[in-house]
Amino acid sequence: MTVRYPRPLRPGDRIGVTSPSSGVPKELRGRLDVAIGDLEARGYEVVVGRCMDGAGHLSAPAAERAAELTDMLTDPAVRAVVPPWGGETAIDLLPLLDFDRLREAEPTWVVGFSDMSTIITPLTLLTGAATVHGNNLMDTPYRVPEGLLSWLDVVAAPQGEPFTQTPPGRHRSTGWDDYRLHPGVRELTLDTPGGWTRLDGDGDVDVEGRLIGGCVETLANLTGTPCLDVASFVRESAPEGLLVYVEAAEDGAFTICRNLHGMRLAGFFDAANAVLVGRSGVPDAPTLTQYEAVVDALGPLNVPIIADVECGHTPPYLPLVNGARARVVHSATRSELTQTLD
Questions:
Q1: Are strands 192-193 and 305-309 parallel, antiparallel or unpaired?
Q2: Per residue in 263-290, pLDDT tens?
């Protein structure tokens, strides 16, 4: 099974909006309208699904969310699917998705992060279709800092042509924008300097592999299940090995440490040529920092571990394509990630 890339998105294509996890409360619909308007301004047709209710933590019953997502992914007129954001329990969709049917369908770009890792990572592993771990729809109106790309740039990239992203050297330290008061906000608050950090030692890094990964809190619950069968993906699609990326949403250092240990013991990192760790704003424990948690769990891999990559819940956002061939370079003077959709 080779990695299957959806064709590049072009103006006039249709983008489906659905909430496989959490929907959008009424008081935040203004931000949703702004984000949809931005897609339409780029020339895309936007179709909003029925599963968008934000009154609770789920947009609709599991069967309805699974059916709507499947309909969009198997509709040849829908070229990309993006949620407003993540949520908490998208794991309830997995038994309801027909991965055989999705494998037979023409691949469609699926975008998102946080709880969407529960969906997009198994999609790549089980169907071979590339997916995008990137900024969700509600984040899309933000202007992209120099050096990074939007998910819209990534899904429009020509297949086989490499694209490179570099850290902008600054990020948001705390807080978030209030979409109730400022639904049209477009400027990211990036108030703290900082680049990538190598955790496992010193020296330059120059490593290649196919990208796979996601949010620790959601993927940890899939280890040992068919939905996170990394070994089969490596055998069939990534004999050159992996660049594995992980990021933490909100759990403390002790929980992240335990989860990463469990993922390593389950074989998730067996083919890793390097590990990329998203920048975390989660507080350290009194006797264990987030950095130490990662090293404690993943140090035995004896591969480069690079932290503070812009692939998590701390803005800005560096989109990563699950399944893409990639090269990471990190030194005292240079940090970059190049992806090629081939």
A1: unpaired
A2: 999 999 999 999 999 999 888 999 999 9
Which CA distances in Å does 52 have to 22, 25, 141, 241, 251?
Answer: 8, 9, 19, 38, 26
User: Sheet harboring 320-322: ordered strands across?
Assistant: 45-48, 14-17, 78-82, 109-112, 131-133, 320-322
Q: What is the pLDDT of residues 62-110, one digit of tens each?
A: 999 999 999 999 999 999 999 999 999 999 999 999 999 999 999 999 9
d(CA 149, CA 166): 9
- Contacts for 199 with CB less than 8 Å, ≥ 6 apart: 277, 291, 294, 295, 305, 306, 307
Long-range contacts of the stretch 73-76 (C-beta < 8 A, 24+) = 73/102, 73/105, 73/108, 73/110, 74/101, 74/102, 74/105, 75/16, 76/106
Mention every residue, 6+ apart, whose C-beta is less than 8 A from residue 328.
205, 206, 207, 208, 243, 274, 276, 306, 336, 337
